[in-house]
# Entry
Amino acid sequence: MMTSPRRLADFTLDDWDRLEPDEGQRVELVDGQFRVSAAPTPWHQIICDELRALLVPAVKPLGWRVVSAIGIRVRPKVGYIPDLVVCEPVQRGTQSVTASAVAVTVEVVSPSSRKNDRFEKPVAYALAGIPAYWRAEIVKDHLISVHCYQLDENGVYVEHATAENGKPATITLPIGAEITIDIEALDR
# Structure
């Protein structure tokens, strides 16, 4: 029997930070409501790991970190969990970071996240002032492209580079690090 009413909406970022989600689930806060995503597939995580391994040696010497699946406080009542972020160092015990501490967000698109990763999240990240957004596209367990966007002077993401099979792309990150994304090397 329920002894007190339970909210279904109007949650805050502080409520979100206090969550202890079940293993294998990602809980994001979207307009005051919790959104639960299924656990990613193994290949999704392999691509995340490969991109992380590419980013770490480029950004760590500059004092930045690459963190998997950390919450970003985007705006009041909105908190997302990108697959990867390049951010300022995170203090132990931190549940989420502010958008101002993030230089790059990376989303690896899954069938269930396609709409959010292509439309909703880039708009929210741009409005929050996150300088760069990357979207990795997977089709049938194969990485086919990584689209790298950077904010322009109007605060809108503009495609800066795209890596595709046979067409590596060299990207300069907003923090000055430079990396080359080679799809064939990442998708082995």
Summary: The chain has a mean pLDDT of 88. The chain is about 20% helix and 35% strand. The longest strand covers residues 142-151. Residues 42-59 form the longest helix (18 residues).
